Amino acid sequence: MNTLEFLRTYEELKSYNPGATVYGINGAMKELKRLDTKIHHLCEMYCNGDLDENGFDTSTKTPYKKLDKLAKDLNIVISVNQDPRGPAVCLHLPSGHYNSWDGETWRLLW
Description:
Elements: H1 3-16, H2 22-47, H3 53-74, E1 77-80, E2 89-92, E3 106-107
Antiparallel strand pairs: 1-2, 2-3
C-alpha cells in the first residue's frame, strides 16, 4: 500500500472510531492486511484446484471469525471477495466512500 492509500484508509477508519489511538488503528490495518493475504491465498488455492469445497470451508472459518471480530471493533461492515483476481477484504464504510470499481466498497490495495 502506498503512503497516500494508507493515510486515506487510516483517516476513514479513524473517523468511525474517535477514541482509538494511532497504534490501535495501525494494528487493525496490519491485521486486515494479514487476513486479506491469507484469504486471498486460500481463494487462489481453491481456484487452482488445490483445495476442494470442504477444505476451503474449513480453512476459512478462522480468518472469517477474526474478520467479524475486527469489523465489530472498527464499527464497520466487512465482506469478502472470493475472486482471486482482486483484494479479498472489502470494507463497507458508513460514509459511503469507495475506492473500487463496484462503487460500494473500500478495498485494501496493497
